[in-house]
Amino acid sequence: MAGGGFDDKSRGARAHLYEYKITSYFVCSCIVAAIGGSLFGYDLGISGGVTSMDDFLKIFFPEVYKRKQEHLKETDYCKYDNQILTLFTSSLYFAALISAFGASHITRKKGRKASILCGAVSFFVGAVLNAAAKNIAMLIIGRCLLGFGIGFSNQAVPLYLSEMAPAKVRGAVNQLFQLSTCLGVLIANFVNYGTAKIHPWGWRLSLGIATIPAMFMFIGGLFLPETPNSLVEQGKLEKARQVLEKVRGTTRVDAEFADLVDASNAARAIKHPFRNLLSRKNRPQLVIGALAIPAFQQLSGMNSILFYSPVIFQSLGFGSGAALYSSAITGGALVVAALISMAFVDKFGRRAFFLEAGVEMICVMVAVAITLALEFGQGVILPKGIGIFLVIIICIFVLAYGRSWGPLGWLVPSEIFPLETRSAGQSMVVCVNMIFTSLIAQCFLVSLCHLKYGVFLLFAGFIIIMTCFIYFLLPETKQVPIEEIYLLWEKHWLWKRYCSSEENGIELKNGDKV
């Protein structure tokens, strides 16, 4: 509950008094902050392409390169089954989940801007190390530094965007993060397509170009304003009011500023935000925002397609160039989906996108599994028509994910936590997300090898569970002010049992009462 241990009746019901205009200052601030998503996206797109390049495999993974050339020696599903190769990808996400906890402290005490700058520096150093790598150890260390950068940026950027945005356009503004991520994926795919023709150092160029978004993020971050929420949380009330007036384009911000101050007073009473996140009144935020949504986002199977789309398409019989080109097509579909979501999420709502896209994703996963079961065998190159069909339905899957679980997996958690647990909650979101991202990255290729087409049926099963979870447990949050989201839990058929004032009574100041 956003009011913590204070009387919530003094808050809420002020949303109709909020005033705002879309100012150039607000737009520029959000666009610069959203560049943080491009770090995540570029890495998602670049990793799979680099690991399918022969020059890269010859230096670091000669066994995989040799196996790749021997198409008929084993089932094609298993060409890239190598745990050290997948560690190259997943090490970044293990590092990101560790850094998320340090990012929480910095985000809360020093502000969202500080975490954005820390993420840019770490990502830049990691990209330089990867581009100059001489051995696997350098690769893994560089990947870990990239992971630290992603941990900081993924923790801070969604919070920054949600806090800066007026309630009525918060969904679209927050999805600038996802759009930036998708553009990063798309650019990475085209970079891979070009550098794959540069022998023998094209892969170094692919990895080194990651320094460019990091530099943009750092230079832009130096000029970013801190969010009013964070400034109030740090006790800088006068500065917070000035920034709020500037981003809203009006001096009539009394109601919104009063809500920020009330939320901050509640936040200051909480000495242990992670412990408070476990309290009874925060049960819906913990279950939905910190655990279920970030885990389900990865269990959809989408990031496996992004990580390994060049590898998947090669395993399905596409040539190396055709595989990278097909990956670029899926990257383009992801950008289109993000634009669709930005345009309509504040009109139709979060639940509508989750549920409609969930049905599409289930159908596509089942169709992929059936196609591979019928047409794909040992050492067999798929017919051209079947290959085109797979690319098309994978694009349909990407379009569905890209307007639902992709952007909303970051939007919904960033808007449902009360201020007193917002940094801690977002750290949990990043941590859980990266745990499942790294596990799937580490296990997908070995699962593809052993489960074959069954791995896509497994993902279909997960998506069925995810869709049912959203239908029964997530209330609609569109156009609800971020400091009044707690009112939704008090009206929900299940969560009102945990969040009603009668159930919770008076909270202790240290937030320990459950």
Describe this structure in words.
This protein has 514 residues and is an all-alpha fold. It has 26 helices and no strands. It is found in: Membrane. It holds the Pfam family Sugar_tr. It is a multi-pass membrane protein.
Descriptive key words:
514 residues, mainly alpha, 74% helix, membrane
Q: Helicity range of the residues?
A: over 70%
- Give a short account of the largest sheet: none
What's the total helix number? 26
Q: Give me the oligomer status.
A: single chain
Q: What is the overall shape?
A: globular
> What is the arithmetic mean of pLDDT?
85
End-to-end gap: 13 Å
The proportion of residues in beta strands is under 5%
Q: pLDDT below 50 for ≥5 consecutive residues: which ranges?
A: 1-11, 505-514
Protein name: Major facilitator superfamily (MFS) profile domain-containing protein
Transmembrane segments: 22-42, 84-102, 114-133, 203-224, 286-311, 323-345, 352-374, 386-406, 427-447, 453-474
Family: Belongs to the major facilitator superfamily. Sugar transporter (TC 2.A.1.1) family.
InterPro entries: MFS_dom, MFS_STP/MST-like_plant, MFS_sugar_transport-like, MFS_trans_sf, STP/PLT_plant, Sugar/inositol_transpt, Sugar_transporter_CS
